[in-house]
Each structure stands twice: as structure tokens, then as C-alpha cells.
Design brief:
The complex is a heterodimer of chains A (125) and B (362).
Chain A: E1 8-9, E2 14-19, E3 22-27, H1 29-35, E4 38-42, E5 49-50, E6 55-61, E7 65-69, E8 74-79, H2 81-85, H3 88-92, E9 101-105, H4 108-112, H5 117-124
Antiparallel strand pairs in A: 1-2, 2-3, 3-9, 4-6, 5-8, 6-7, 8-9
Chain B: E1 7-8, H1 12-17, E2 21-25, E3 28-33, H2 37-46, E4 49-52, E5 57-62, H3 66-73, E6 85-92, E7 98-108, E8 111-116, H4 121-131, E9 137-140, E10 145-151, H5 155-159, E11 163-165, E12 177-182, E13 185-190, E14 199-205, H6 209-218, E15 222-223, H7 226-236, H8 269-278, E16 282-289, E17 300-302, E18 308-317, E19 324-331, E20 340-345, E21 348-355
Parallel strand pairs in B: 1-3, 4-15
Antiparallel strand pairs in B: 2-3, 4-10, 5-8, 5-9, 6-7, 7-8, 10-14, 11-12, 12-13, 13-14, 16-19, 16-21, 17-18, 17-20, 18-19, 20-21
Classes of the chains: A alpha+beta (125), B alpha+beta (362).
């Protein structure tokens, strides 16, 4: 299971990469594997300010749909248009080309308080 | 998750050796996918795949009264069966709903096999025993049988080299069966399936099933899981018990009028005859969505004014067609074929075309 050490994680299987006060957010390798072939990613919260744990979008696989949750409070700056056009990127490269949104975070310290790689690894067992 | 005692099929070790993703289903550890749902799905549509469906139940019904019992408990007319023929049927529950859908196999005039859903096995067994005022002999052989479905346009080529029996696989007509051996293993070879891709189902002695699985695997047959089984059956427009039919749905509303025959007496006959005369209040229809979104079980269906007129019972992205499909019960007055309804998918109402279930080009 691929769990990059430099990222932060949520129990809902989102990952966060913080650069300054901008966080890039996606779903983990474990999550894409559990979902299976992803056919749509929907994010219609671009430009909105959301609280931590609010739904920012959804990801549809062939068999199931799953909500996407904000790991931290902030403004949704951008939805990855590459993923909108080719959702399979989330399966093939979940930590790279398959990123989902960029967020201007309200409180960068809140990102540091999320799960680290070891804690997330323990969470998914 | 609660740790409940899950049963295994005789092929568990084969699934584990292939690295299958296993899920609990109907009380069994079952493979949901191996290489990936979409790839498995295409294998069956374009070539040949196989499924372990050993969790299905097999009940033997024997004796001079066997047919009388089957005629009473099922909606289809089993008196029309000849030896070596199979019939799709369903069991009404005495209240206008469905206990289960099933296959009826006729070995001879006094020997039949009923193949039922694993999720309903105990309910079915108790129901059938309760209806058996005919004193037919009943035997639950579910644990004795493994069942492998080999499906797809190349199924005959995959099965024929290993099979020796009364009839060659290529000569079996749809919904007939023959007995013989597959790679030396005693086999009931049935030209049936749940994919709309054609092929066979092989009933095998549980303890010898792994040899058959391995022979098929070596022959290049793609192992497929429950995920692909569901997308394939939904493309073909086949009902899934627990989704599209259950104890509250009538066979007529479910589009199963073609297996509801008023040529004989059976459980709920009068009720269904009246429903046929008056029309069902809801009808199971196919939905085709070409915009981005997938109907899922339980989603509301609305008319153009936002009034709820139905409910989705099954839905998926169709790997073959590249757009979403579903089944839904619609109020009869909103169920016109070719009409447009709207599926409530979170904050959107996506237009869906109303079609007959069965989404593949003929």
C-alpha cells in the first residue's frame, strides 16, 4: 500500500499536501483501490469556503458513490480539470496527476494535526 | 464490522491464490473482483469469463408429486418442461410478493432441481416445506454442489474440449442441460447464465470443483467477481432479488408477466389475475442517463415538476455502453416507454429516458 510519508491524511481517506497556505487534496491509494474503477469526479464547490468535514464533492465508481470531505477549513481554489476529463487518473496516480482540489486553508496548523503516514497506515490496518 | 461466521465456497483457495478482493455476500466469503471490474466485464462480453456462484442453493424435488408441488409454488408452467429443459420462474409469497426467483430443472417426470438465491436459501426451504401438502420428497443439496458459470461468446470453445456427455456443449439450446463429465468430474452442464452473453453453468461435486476451475483458468478463461456479475446482469436487464424484486413486489409489476402463467393453479394466482386485468400500479422500467451521474438503489425518480414518481432499484455505469443505466419502479402513469423522467442524484435532477429493461443492442 502506497502511503507517502510527507503527506497528511484523514480517516475518510483523503490526503493533504500543504505548501504555504495552499493545500492540495486527493484520495489515497487505499481509497481508490476500495472504490474500484472511478467514472466521475464531481466538485461543484469551487470558490466556496467550507468548514472541515464538509462535503466538497463526490467520486463515483462503477459500483458505488462516495462523498469527499474537507480535511480542513478553507476556500476551494481549484478543481483538477484533468480528473474531470479523465477520472481514471485517480485510480492510476492518486497522489500525482489524480489530485482533486487545491484549497486556501484557514489554519495551516490544522493540517499538521491530521494523521501522519504511520497513523493512517494503522487506521487502514 | 461485526465478525459473523461467513461460509466459504469450495473454491475459496482458488480465489485467494488469484489475489481476489473478497467481500461478505449472502453469508459467504465471495470474490467481488480479481483484475478489476471493468476488465472482467469486457472479458465476458467479448471473450469468456467465469464466476464462482457456488453460494447458490440447489433443492431436489422428487417423487410422483414433484411436479404438483412445483406447479403450486411457482408462477411459470413447469408442466411444459421436457427432460433436460430449464425454466426461469418465481415463487409468490401468498401476499402478492416474491419469495424468490429461481430456475427449475427437469431431469425426468419425477425428478426436478430448483436453483435459488443464496440470500434466500433458508427462507425458501422453509416456505417450500410449508407448501408441500403434496408429499413430494425434498432434499437440500446446496452444500454438495459447486457452481461455476462460464459466460461469453467464446464459452463453447472454452468448455467443449473438456466435456464429454450426452450432448456436445455447442449443440445445447438456451435453457437446456445435459449430464456428463468435465475434465473427468461429473457435471450437469446447463446452457443458462445471468450475463446476457451466453454460455454455461456447471453444477459440480463440491470436492472436485477446484480441478474444473483450474482447467478453465489454464484454458484462458478470465476469473470474474460479483462486481462484473452485477454490471453484466443489469445491462441484460435481469432482476436481482433484494434490489429489483422482493417480498413486496409482484412479478407482474417487475416485468415478469412472461413467467406468470394462468394455465394452472398456484399461490397468489387470483391476486395476479386481478392485477393483470386491472394493470399494475407501478412498473419496473429501465432508465438510460447520458449526462454525468449514476442512478443508485434508493434514489428518487421525479417528474418534470419535481414530484416523486418512482424509486431506483439498481443502477450502474454500463461498461459496454459507456453511460449510466438503471432499473426503477415508476408509477404506471409515468412509465411510458420513450418518456423522460428525472433521477434525483444529490442536488441535481438528471434526465433519464424510460426504456424496457435490457440495454444491450439486439
Amino acid at each position: 500500500m502506497n502511503i507517502p510519508a510527507e503527506l497528511r491524511y484523514t480517516k475518510e481517506h483523503e490526503w493533504v499536501r500543504l505548501e504555504g497556505d495552499v493545500a492540495t487534496i486527493g484520495i489515497t491509494d487505499f481509497a481508490q483501490g476500495e472504490l474500484g474503477d472511478i467514472v466521475f469526479v464531481e466538485v461543484d464547490t469551487e470558490g466556496e469556503s467550507l468548514d472541515a468535514e464538509e462535503v466538497f464533492g463526490s467520486v463515483e465508481a462503477v459500483k458505488t458513490v462516495s462523498d469527499l470531505f474537507m480535511p480542513c477549513a478553507g476556500e476551494v481554489l481549484e478543481f483538477n480539470s484533468a480528473v474531470e476529463d479523465d477520472p481514471a487518473l485517480v485510480n492510476s496516480d492518486p497522489y500525482g496527476a489524480g489530485w482533486l482540489i487545491k484549497v486556501k486553508v484557514s489554519d495551516p496548523a490544522a493540517v499538521e494535526a491530521l494523521l501522519d503516514a504511520a497513523a493512517y497506515g494503522a487506521h487502514i490496518g | 464490522m461485526e465478525t459473523t461466521e461467513l461460509k466459504s465456497t469450495p473454491l475459496l483457495a482458488e480465489h485467494q491464490a488469484l489475489g481476489a478482493k473478497m467481500v461478505p455476500f449472502a453469508g459467504y466469503h465471495m470474490p467481488v473482483s480479481y483484475a478489476g471490474l471493468t476488465e472482467e466485464h469486457h472479458s465476458v462480453r467479448n471473450r469468456v469469463g467465469m464466476f464462482d456462484v457456488s453460494h447458490m442453493g440447489e433443492f431436489m424435488v422428487k417423487g410422483p408429486e414433484a411436479l404438483d408441488l412445483i406447479q403450486w409454488i411457482t408462477t411459470n408452467d413447469a408442466s411444459k418442461l421436457v427432460d433436460g429443459q430449464v425454466q426461469y420462474s418465481c415463487m409468490p409469497n401468498g401476499e402478492g410478493g416474491i419469495v424468490d426467483d429461481l430456475l427449475v430443472y427437469r431431469f425426468n417426470a419425477e425428478s426436478f432441481m430448483l436453483v435459488v438465491n443464496a440470500s434466500n436459501l433458508e427462507k425458501d426451504w422453509n416456505w417450500i416445506q410449508g407448501q408441500n401438502r403434496f408429499n413430494a420428497t425434498l432434499e437440500d443439496r446446496s452444500e454438495a454442489f459447486a457452481l461455476i458459470a462460464v459466460q461469453g461468446p467464446e464459452a463453447t470453445a472454452a468448455v467443449a474440449p473438456h466435456f464429454q456427455g450426452a450432448a456436445a456443449p455447442g449443440d445445447l439450446k438456451y435453457y437446456t442441460f445435459t449430464e456428463g463429465t468435465f475434465a473427468g468430474v461429473p457435471t450437469v452442464l446447463s446452457a443458462t447464465g445471468y450475463t446476457g452473453a451466453g454460455g454455461f453453468e456447471l453444477y459440480l461435486p463440491a470436492e472436485q470443483a477446484s480441478g474444473v476451475w483450474k482447467a478453465l483458468l489454464e484454458g484462458g478463461v478470465t476469473p470474474c467477481g460479483l462486481g462484473a456479475r452485477d454490471t453484466l446482469r443489469l445491462e441484460a436487464g435481469f432482476c436481482l432479488y433484494g434490489n429489483d424484486i422482493d417480498d413486496s413486489t409482484s412479478p407482474l409489476a417487475a416485468g415478469l408477466g412472461w413467467i406468470t402463467k394462468f394455465t394452472k393453479d398456484f399461490v397468489d394466482r387470483d391476486r395476479f389475475e386481478a392485477e393483470k386485468a386491472n394493470g399494475s400500479t407501478t412498473v419496473l422500467r429501465g432508465l438510460v442517463i447520458t449526462e454525468r451521474g449514476i442512478p443508485r438503489q434508493g434514489y428518487d425518480v421525479e417528474d418534470a415538476n419535481g414530484q416523486v414518481i418512482g424509486r431506483v432499484t439498481s443502477g450502474t455505469m454500463s461498461p459496454t455502453l459507456g453511460h449510466a443505466i438503471g432499473l426503477a419502479y415508476l408509477a404506471a402513469e409515468n412509465a411510458q416507454l420513450g418518456g423522460t423522467v428525472f433521477v434525483r442524484i444529490r442536488n441535481k435532477a438528471l434526465p433519464a429516458q424510460v426504456v424496457r429493461p435490457g440495454f444491450l443492442p439486439r
